Amino acid sequence: AGNRTFTMIKPDAFGAGNSGAILKMIEEAGFKIVALKATQLTAELAGKFYEVHKERPFYADLCKYMSSGPIIAAILEKDNAVEDFRKLIGATDPSKAEDGTIRKIFAKSIEANAVHGSDSDENAAIEGNFYFSQFERVL
Ligand code: CMP
């Protein structure tokens, strides 16, 4: 077993019907699914999830956007999970993302950027625990 990261397939990608294609890319890159669900955030829960960004100018819009439709939340496992997953998804701004990355292929804008990926092991654990109980994940 490797270590873990956390991802969301965001409302733009979910709404466009790209969840399956994105999960396929994730599995083909060697990540194992440890927990998975479709759900929808309220604006309040989105605000809590993205609390670290609350002083940023895009925060209000981000909370509105992230609660605008269904998402998929997942915990993923692989050696070097956090760093390797960030490579797989590409830069936050899809116009700066490398060819072949999930955001390059599926993202619509810097906000509607198809997927989230945790930026550290510590945040991966916090974010996974935000969505999933012990009974909702592979041991
Ligand atoms: P994510 O990696 O989930 O973390 C914060 C999110 O804020 C980011 O992806 C985007 O969806 C959104 N966002 C919107 N505008 C910006 C911006 N200018 N810089 C960074 N993130 C932004």
From TrEMBL:
Which cofactors are required for activity? Mg(2+)
- Enzyme Commission no: 2.7.4.6
* Family matches, as InterPro entries: NDK-like_dom, NDK-like_dom_sf, Nucleoside_diP_kinase
Keyword list, A-Z: ATP-binding, Kinase, Magnesium, Metal-binding, Nucleotide metabolism, Nucleotide-binding, Phosphoprotein, Transferase
Amino-acid positions noted as binding ATP in the UniProt annotation, renumbered to this chain: K10, F58, R86, T92, R103, N113
Biological process GO terms, please? CTP biosynthetic process; GTP biosynthetic process; UTP biosynthetic process
Active-site residues from the entry? H116 (pros-phosphohistidine intermediate)
Return one GO MF term: nucleoside diphosphate kinase activity
Nucleoside diphosphate kinase-like domain location, by residue?
A: 2-139
Which CDD domains has this protein been placed in? NDPk_I (cd04413)
Family membership noted in the UniProt record:
Belongs to the NDK family.
Protein name as catalogued: nucleoside-diphosphate kinase
Which species does the entry assign this protein to?
Indibacter alkaliphilus (strain CCUG 57479 / KCTC 22604 / LW1)
Q: What is the lineage of its organism?
A: Bacteria, Pseudomonadati, Bacteroidota, Cytophagia, Cytophagales
